[in-house]
Amino acid sequence: MTAGELLAASGLPGAEARALLAFASGATREALIAFPERVVAPEAAARFEALVERRRAGEPMAYLLGVQEFYRRPFCVTPAVLIPRPETELLVELALDALRSIESPRVLELGTGSGCIAISLALERPDARVVAADASVEALAIARANAQRLDARVDFVASDWYAAIAGEFDAIVANPPYVAASDPHLADLRFEPLYALTDHGDGLGCLRTIVAGAPAHLARDGWLLVEHGYDQAAAVRALFERAGFDEVRTVRDAAGIERACTGRFV
Ligand code: GLN
Fold first, then answer.
1. What residues flank ligand 1, with Cβ below 6 Å?
2. What residues make up the domain containing 23?
3. CATH number reported for the structural domain that contains residue 160 in this entry
4. Fewer CB near the last or first residue (10 Å), C or N of the chain?
5. What is the DSSP letter of 28?
6. In angstroms, rounded to a whole number, what is the distance separating the alpha carbons of residues 32 and 48?
7. pTM listed for this prediction
């Protein structure tokens, strides 16, 4: 079959179909647009059709292609890690802002997953000392590979939140699982690791642990920056305030949704 025939038969939106056919055949997306009459080799066509089937069953493009862009860089992903979200780039921006006036800042990321936050921070601030933790050994392997591929200097630690963390940091950053167990939205996320999405409770369980443990691991004037769910802003601010944080602030993402909380431990 020709590229054009395969793309049309897939029933997928054009851009998705082209991305999958490019991946399956080795052709560029531009070539697929310019030369739809080109015949696709049978093995590549079969690979493409298998990918189309998975896509039609709802599997995210990032898992099919094995890659997701975050903060302008490509990150490898597998179903062992959450797919980086564009709204999480806000957390990187906020951390970079917070660290602007600190030389060689020490940064801790909890629950690093693909490593996208820690690696972005390390690459944007080459003078930083970045430690990134995850309880999942599988996730850590992916994060380490991403750091190596992108040439980022990050120390990865297997740790259940703070359990294996030593030392003092100028900033602690986390995008923890915050989706409530009762949230129907979880069904749409069924291809992603459940442990990265939900605390199996009210959605605030991991945030409570992270906020409560932060003061013991922060240097004076250190920052805590977390991502949270669309309806958790007031609850998370209250957690920060109860833990003794100052300058507690909710920040909206590009879609206008209350998405992050930051505070300073004075
Ligand atoms: N932002 C993700 C979603 O709802 C959830 C990520 C998380 O729990 N940290 O799609």
1. 85, 175-179, 189, 197
2. 3-57
3. 3.40.50.150
4. C
5. -
6. 13
7. 0.96
